[in-house]
């Protein structure tokens, strides 16, 4: 029973390029969350999606960042025209349903480490 | 808004020592509370949780009690091992998780 799968594990981009991060939730999970972890800091919520819908994007930067979770395939976090400050670890988590239910924990992937040259 | 405050690290202990990592939160109502552990180069693993006041979460010798009166959820373990060396995150949950900044634990043999 595979857990949350993220790829790539490491991604290197030059300033101005695009970065695409992928997340396949656990089997049976229809809720996906993206978090960003800057060096030596905790994780910060970015966006919460269900299939084909963005539910909460209050943590997403207003420009250059977008996320989707299509009916088929993984969730994608896309960063356009990357800058040095985008260097971070990006984690995806998934849950079964009812995100307000404390008994439904979020399961995390191993993250994508994005480095901007 | 919601926030979580953890004691700063690193916390350095000898093997078999007693561990406490303090965590307090600010939130309206009664969110669920969690401790996650992150080993180097890996994602977060759920360590334990508590969903209402006075609940005690426990796992692998770690414990934490949801204290409404002090808005705290301190992590404790009676006897740490070298393999417990990791970063520990306290978090509260509404729809998404709000994390503390993490506490690095280093256990020396």
Any idea what the radius of gyration of chain B is? 13 Å
Task: Count every beta strand of chain B, where a strand is a DSSP E run of 2 or more residues.
Answer: 12
Quaternary organisation: heterodimer
Number of strands of chain A: 11
General shape of chain B: globular
Please summarize the sheet with the most strands of chain A: 7 strands, mixed
* Helix and strand composition category of chain B: mainly beta
Largest interface: A-B, 26 and 25 residues
Order of helices and strands of chain B: EEEEEEEEEEEE
Strand content of chain B: over 45%
Report the β-strand fraction of chain A as a percent range: over 45%
Q: Percent range for helical residues of chain A?
A: under 10%
Write the H/E string of chain A, N to C: EEEEEEEEEEE
Largest sheet of chain B: 6 strands, mixed
Structure in words:
The complex is a heterodimer of chains A (117) and B (109). Chain A is mostly beta strands. In chain A, 0% of the residues lie in helices and 48% in strands. Chain A has no helices and eleven strands. Chain A has strands at 5-7, 10-13, 19-24, 31-37, 43-50, 53-56, 65-68, 75-79, 88-95, 107-108, 112-116. In chain A, the strands form two sheets. In chain A, strands 2, 4, 5, 6, 9, 10 and 11 form a seven-stranded mixed sheet that branches. In chain A, strand 5 and strand 6 (53-56) form a beta hairpin. Chain A is globular. With 109 residues, chain B is an all-beta fold. Chain B is built from no helices and twelve strands. Chain B has strands at residues 3-6, 11-14, 19-21, 23-26, 32-38, 44-50, 56-59, 62-65, 75-77, 86-93, 97-99, 103-108. In chain B, strands 2, 5, 6, 10, 11 and 12 form a six-stranded mixed sheet that branches. Chain B has a four-stranded antiparallel sheet with strand order 3-9-8-7, with no helix packed on it. A two-stranded antiparallel ribbon of chain B has the order 1-4. In chain B, a hairpin with a 5-residue loop joins strand 5 (32-38) and strand 6. Chain B starts with a strand and ends with a strand. At the A-B interface, strand 5 and strand 10 of A face strand 5, strand 6 and strand 11 of B.
